[in-house]
């Protein structure tokens, strides 16, 4: 029997199958995330112990922040895209994701977060497209400088930023519709984090913040911690950050206001030193004791950073799971419609 299904119906049915399976896949991811958050109890920062923990608090900046590409906003994480004609372009447009370490604070205290290798669940804070004349969407403020900004502005810099006259942002030249999206987490945002709490001294390199990669031994294993302590007491480990990292260990060096003179080439421009008050504040911000617990990724406990308090994060991912189930229904219905059409309907 000849098929009664038209090419348009076939295309719609196939599109329904693909879309439904994509929603189902995303839904299962939401289910896993919701289960992981819900099954781990929240610890206070002051009472947490080494091992897997769930913390909830507010983001505070550490040494530096990021400047987001689409809105020039201070943040600790962003994922920004510019899509042309509904597809991400590989020819000069944008698909950029970046993060920096930060501080998480709750009512009991604060802890440093090293997010390399983390899974981020950040809110969509900007979603716009150019108009029919190619004009930029409201709120678009493309970044014009570097991606790294200071964790705090001094008084003069804050005043200059408030008084600065910003030119009107224009959309990139070229034909075609452009869609702008930016997911972002910034200082002041409430987040829920699940990861492994480990002593700061166990991190081989804080800029990497991946603990025991490729190892089957947990980072908080008592034997590992004992071996590290023994090696440090024997002088086999470098215990001085200045010796290990050079100028990068000087508080304030990364923002151009070091607390002491760095070692530079004779021809290099020497930055002004921070005053006593700033130096004390920078020391407190930059210094982390080797025994202090921090949060980082481990092979058996990947770091999860989700927007909102635990209840809100769980509910959001459960909603994704429900949408995934609806996607499964869509895929099954589309497949049945396609099969019936190809078979020539229900008739004999």
Oligomerization state: single chain
Give the CA-based shape.
globular
Instruction: Report how far apart the termini are.
Output: 9 Å
Quickly give the structural class: alpha+beta
| Sheet with most strands | 7 strands, mixed
Instruction: Return the string of H and E elements.
Output: HEEEEEEEEEEEHEEHHHEEH
Radius of gyration: 25 Å
How many DSSP H or I helices? Answer: 6
Indicate the low-confidence ranges by residue numbers: 88-92, 165-169, 208-219
Total count of strands: 15
- Helix content, binned percent: 25-40%
Q: What proportion of the residues form beta strands (DSSP E)?
A: 15-25%
What's the average pLDDT? Answer: 75
What does this structure look like?
With 348 residues, the protein is an alpha+beta fold. The chain has helices spanning 7-38, 155-163, 222-233, 241-245, 276-286, 310-343; strands at residues 51-61, 64-67, 74-75, 77-84, 87-88, 95-99, 102-106, 109-113, 119-121, 124-129, 148-150, 178-185, 190-199, 293-296, 304-307. It has a domain at 53-239 and 290-309. Helix content is 30%, strand content 23%. Strands 1, 7, 8, 9, 13, 14 and 15 form a 7-stranded mixed beta sheet that branches. Strands 4, 5, 6, 10 and 12 form a 5-stranded antiparallel beta sheet that branches. A hairpin with a 6-residue loop joins strand 2 (64-67) and strand 3 (74-75). Helix 1 packs antiparallel against helix 6. The chain is globular.
């Amino acid at each position: 029997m000849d098929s009664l299904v038209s090419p348009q119906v076939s295309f719609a049915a196939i599109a329904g199958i693909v879309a439904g399976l994509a929603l189902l896949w995303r839904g299962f991811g939401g289910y896993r995330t919701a289960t992981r958050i819900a099954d781990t109890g929240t610890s206070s920062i002051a009472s947490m112990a080494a091992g897997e923990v769930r913390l909830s608090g507010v983001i505070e900046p550490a040494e530096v922040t990021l400047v987001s590409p689409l809105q020039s906003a201070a943040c600790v994480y962003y994922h920004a895209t510019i899509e042309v004609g509904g597809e991400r372009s590989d020819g000069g447009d944008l698909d950029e994701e970046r993060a920096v370490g930060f501080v998480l604070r709750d009512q009991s205290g604060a802890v440093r977060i090293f997010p390399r290798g983390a899974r981020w669940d950040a809110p969509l804070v900007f979603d716009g497209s150019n108009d029919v004349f190619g004009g930029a969407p409201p709120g678009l403020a493309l970044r014009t400088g570097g991606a790294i900004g200071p964790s705090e502005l001094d008084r003069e810099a804050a005043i200059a930023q408030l008084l600065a006259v910003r030119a009107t942002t224009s959309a990139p030249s070229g034909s075609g519709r452009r869609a702008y999206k930016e997911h972002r987490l910034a200082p002041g945002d409430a987040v829920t984090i699940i990861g492994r709490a480990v002593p700061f001294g166990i991190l081989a390199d804080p800029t990497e913040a991946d603990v025991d990669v490729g190892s089957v031994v947990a980072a908080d294993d008592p034997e590992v911690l004992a071996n590290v302590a023994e090696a440090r007491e024997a002088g086999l480990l470098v215990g001085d950050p200045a010796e290990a990292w050079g100028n990068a260990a000087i508080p304030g060096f990364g923002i151009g206001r070091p607390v002491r003179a760095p070692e530079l080439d004779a021809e290099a421009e020497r930055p002004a030193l921070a005053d006593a008050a700033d130096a004390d504040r920078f020391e407190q911000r930059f210094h982390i004791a080797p025994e202090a617990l921090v949060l980082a990724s481990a092979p058996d406990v990947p770091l999860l950073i989700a927007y909102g308090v635990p209840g809100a994060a769980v509910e959001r991912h459960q909603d994704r799971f429900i949408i995934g189930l609806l996607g499964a229904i869509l895929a099954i219905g589309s497949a049945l419609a396609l099969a019936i059409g190809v078979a020539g309907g229900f008739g004999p």
